[in-house]
Each structure stands twice: as C-alpha cells, then as structure tokens.
Specification:
two-stranded antiparallel ribbon; transport; globular; MetI-like fold; 14 helices
Length: 304
C-alpha cells in the first residue's frame, strides 16, 4: 500500500519549484508590464473622467459624473456609437469570411503551398496608417486607379464627399489589414482537422459544400470564436490609424468611431474631461461585449 502511494505521488504532474520566490520572479515582468501599460493608464482615465480641466492643465475641478452625462446626451456621441457598431460588425465579418475562404482554398493547393501562405501573411506586416494610405490612393476619386475603373463602369464613387462610400473604403482597408491574421489561424485550424473524417464523408457521398458546413466549419468553431473576439477588439481600437489616414472621421462624421472621437475631443479640441469619460465608456463597452461573447456565444462552441 505504501509503495503504491509513493508511486502515485511520484507520477503526479504537479511542478515543484526549488525556491518559493522563483514563481513570483517569473511572472513579475508580465505583471509589471500589465500594471504600467494597462492598470495605471486605466486608473488615470477613470480619475480624469471625473474632472473638468483647463486645456493647458492650469486648473481642474471635480465634477463627479457631469462629464458622462454631457457625453451620453451629445448627438455626435450617439452617432459615433452607431458608426462604431456598423464599422466593427462589417469589418469583423468581411475579414473573417474572406480569410476563411482563402484558407480553405490554400489548404487544397499541393504545389507551392508554402509560397501562397507566405504571400497571404505579408499584408499583416503593413502598418495601419500605411494600409489606409494604400487604399486611399487606389480609391481616390481624382487619381485613384480603381476609382477610375468604377467611374468607367458608371458607378458614382467619392469617399471624400459621400459618407457611405467613405464607410465602405475604411471597412475594406481595415478588413484587408486583418485578413492575414485570420488566415493564419484558419489554416492552422484546418490542418488540425483529421483528414479521415473528410474522406469518410466523401465516401458516403457528401458533396464538397456539405462536407464544409457539416464537418469542417463545426470543427473550426473554437478558432472562429477566438477570431471573433480578436477581430471585435481590433475593430474597436486598432483601426484608429486607418481611419485617421483615410477619412479623418469624415465626411460629416460618417466614419468617426468611438476611438477616433476620443482622440478628436481630447487631442484636437482639448476637451480633456469629456475625452477621458469617452475612453472609460469605450473600455466598459469592450469589456461588456467580450463578456457577452464568452457568456453566450461560447455556448455554441464545441471543443473536440
């Protein structure tokens, strides 16, 4: 009995560090980075959201929740919420759908598979501002090559004056920037699917489309859910450079998302209290949306 107990104890997967301080030293750098670059700025934003400050920082007054009341009653802020909802949903859906299509097509390639995948990943290395400028040059109504093609086809295109065209342009630029990231994870997910399942379905007479929707796509559910969370966060925060380079929030605030309004009110108009309040609201929205996704959307995900 004693020998059996020692054997089970020796086979235990528990890791024992030789020094009690070593585990804390290993996680200390990550904790320090998180504290300095997340918790400290977040606490400062929360504190400044309750202040009414002079643009030059010479005086400040504690006003409690007045900044939040003024922001939430502002029609321009309500417009930014609507713009952000449309922009983030369209960007996430387009980026994930196109990436999944390209991943499925690239997974079928036998010769030169590595070359195709490398070429697909390269756009992710492009900075957001550069990606925005590339699309702006292509679709500029005066000098853009693709804009000239649209006019030749009889399609009226002017993202500098039309809000709908501007939204289409920034969604296309933001989605193109994120497709490479999604493509990488979808390819990895496709490679993890056992080929025997697909071959068995093919032998049973299931067509290619039916095999995709009944076998491949359900098994990609964990990857799809992960990318849904990442793409939502990307659309809310990391697209600032694209919008700033392409439209600057215009025309007529048609592409002014929440993160761009925080910048516009805080750094351009120097309304510091309102800008801080908007950043706190934006952080709360993203946290609530992520929690909602994990609480309800993850129920549809099956980890096999």
């Amino acid at each position: 009995m004693a020998l059996s107990f020692r054997r089970r104890k020796s086979l235990s997967p528990r890791v024992v560090f030789p020094n009690r301080i070593l585990p804390y030293l290993l996680v200390a750098p990550q904790l320090a980075i998180t504290a300095v670059f997340f918790y400290w700025p977040a606490s400062q934003a929360l504190y400044q959201s309750a202040l009414r400050e002079d643009p030059f920082g010479l005086s400040s007054k504690f006003v409690w929740f007045d900044n939040f009341v003024r922001v939430l009653s502002d029609p321009n802020y309500v417009n930014s919420v609507q713009v952000t909802a449309v922009f983030s949903l369209a960007t996430a859906l387009v980026a994930m759908a196109v990436a999944l299509l390209l991943a499925v097509m690239a997974d079928k390639v036998i010769r030169g598979r590595g070359i195709y995948r490398t070429l697909m990943i390269w756009p992710y290395a492009v900075a957001p501002a550069i990606a925005g400028m590339l699309w702006l040059f292509l679709f500029n109504p005066s000098i853009g090559t693709l804009a000239y093609g649209l006019r030749w086809l009889g399609i009226a295109w002017n993202p500098l004056l039309d809000g709908g065209d501007a939204m289409v342009l920034v969604v296309a630029a933001a989605a193109w920037k994120q497709i490479s990231y999604n493509f990488l994870f979808f390819v990895a997910g496709l490679q993890a699917i056992p080929k025997t399942l697909i071959e068995a379905a093919a032998i049973d007479g299931a067509g290619e489309t039916k095999r995709f929707w009944t076998i491949i796509f359900p098994l990609l559910a964990p990857t799809t859910f992960f990318l849904l969370v990442i793409n939502t966060t990307y659309a809310f925060f990391d697209t600032f450079g694209i919008i700033h380079a392409v439209t600057g929030g215009g025309p007529g605030k048609a592409t002014e998302t929440l993160v761009y309004k925080v910048y516009n009110d805080g750094f351009v108009n120097l309304i510091l209290g309102d800008s801080a309040a908007q950043s706190v609201i934006l952080m709360a929205i993203v946290i609530a949306l992520t929690a909602f996704q994990f609480r309800f959307v993850e129920r549809k995900v099956h980890y096999g």
